[in-house]
Amino acid sequence: MIWLGAALVLIVAAVAPATWLGLRGDPLRRLIGLQLCGALLVPVLLLLTFGYGQSSYLIVPLVLAVLTFAGTLVFLRLLHDERVR
């Protein structure tokens, strides 16, 4: 039960403001919010995995860590094309 409480605290205290940052502002601030959300959601999902006691759920945060980096590269590519014009 402590794992689920820690995940809830992390979501409220860290992921919610990072999501707000990712939804507002100029493209650079949104990129920072995207990176921050990805970095914060990995530990949240790990805490949920331990809280529910399902080791098969461990693949989700590991895949998210890789896809966050790839998504950031795509976002940067689109941001670069927008700045050039």
Question: Which keywords apply here?
Answer:
85 residues; mainly alpha; Helix Hairpins; 87% helix; flat
CATH class: Mainly Alpha
What proportion of the residues is helical, as a percent range? over 70%
Q: Please count the beta strands (DSSP E, at least 2 residues each).
A: 0
Q: What is the arithmetic mean of pLDDT?
A: 87
Broad structural category? mainly alpha
| SSE arrangement, N to C | HHH
Low-pLDDT runs: none
Word description of this protein:
The termini are far apart. It is built from three helices and no strands. The protein is 87% helix and 0% strand. The chain has 85 residues and is mainly α. The chain has a single domain, classed as Orthogonal Bundle (Helix Hairpins), CATH 1.10.287. Helix 1 runs antiparallel to helix 2 (27-52) and helix 2 packs antiparallel against helix 3.
How is the secondary structure organized here?
Blueprint: H1 2-23, H2 27-52, H3 59-84
Helix pairs in contact: 1-2, 2-3
Compact description:
The chain has helices at residues 2-23, 27-52, 59-84. It is mainly alpha-helical.
